[in-house]
Amino acid sequence: MRKLLLVDDEPHIHFTVGQVFADQPVRVLSAETADTALQVVQTEQPEVVLLDIRLGQCSGLELFHELTSIAPKVLVIFITGHGTTDTAIEAMKLGAFEYLVKPLDFTRLREVVGEAFEICRLMHVHAEEEDANATEFPDQIIAESLLESELFGHESVEAALANRESDLYRRAIEQFDRELVMRALAQVGGHQANAATLLGLSRPTLRAKLRALGMTMEKVASANRKSSPDIR
């Protein structure tokens, strides 16, 4: 069963969210404090976290950094009041999945959480997809891409391609995948939907790749500015 952790210091929110997902195969976990949330993430390993941007004396943004440091693949959806949407948008630039505004729209809540769970599923199979995708490209193309990145020398590239079971090969393919995604994003000005089409992927699959590769919106934008200063 999928696990959703709700972190909010208002008890009625916990009851409401529990009712929203009562008819779905989702186990809703609860935490009213930052300390409890961290404990639940470590013991229960939820795939998705609903996090209030204001959590008593603790900032939701601070807790977001702590949560993602101990569980890098967890997807965080912020819950925010109208006066704190700027903070939630900033959190998305740092890697948060989405934000919802209070009072919660239950239909939208189900949609966003459902999409987050789908992203999690895709992230779990990312390694298998990565291996399958790697076989679609000749070694020469992979080697040229890695050499252009200047992160792998000739000897490292040759060693990686010679042993496809090695950690070096895994890192090389990951770098190749990253370069491929970055080039697609640069080509379409950072528009993820268009980049997904260019790569022959669904948008959720592209988002899963970005997260699996540690490529937040902020990092992608920064890399695009460095490689293509004229991109707007």
Q: Kindly, what is the distance between the CA atoms of the first and last residues, rounded to a whole number of angstroms?
A: 43 Å
Strand content: 5-15%
Number of domains: 2
What's the rounded overall pLDDT mean? 77
Envelope shape: elongated
The oligomerization state is single chain
Largest sheet: 5 strands, parallel
Q: Summarize the helix and strand pattern as letters.
A: EHEHEEEHEHEHHHHHHHH
User: How does the helix and strand content classify structurally?
Assistant: alpha/beta
Stretches with pLDDT under 50, minimum 5 residues: 227-232
CATH homologous superfamily identity of the largest domain: Response regulator
Computed Rg: 20 Å
Helix segment count?
12
Question: How is this structure best described in words?
Answer:
A hairpin with a 2-residue loop joins strand 4 (54-55) and strand 5. Helix content is 60%, strand content 13%. The chain has 12 helices and 7 strands. It has helices at 11-20, 34-44, 60-70, 85-93, 106-124, 126-134, 139-149, 154-162, 167-187, 192-199, 203-212, 217-227, and strands spanning 2-7, 26-31, 48-52, 54-55, 58-59, 75-80, 98-101. Strands 2-1-3-6-7 form a 5-stranded parallel β-sheet, sandwiched between helices. Strands 4-5 form a two-stranded antiparallel ribbon. Helix 2 (34-44) runs parallel beside helix 3. The chain is α/β, with parallel strands linked by helices and 232 residues long. It folds into 2 domains: 2-124, 3-Layer(aba) Sandwich (Rossmann fold), CATH 3.40.50.2300; 126-227, no CATH class.
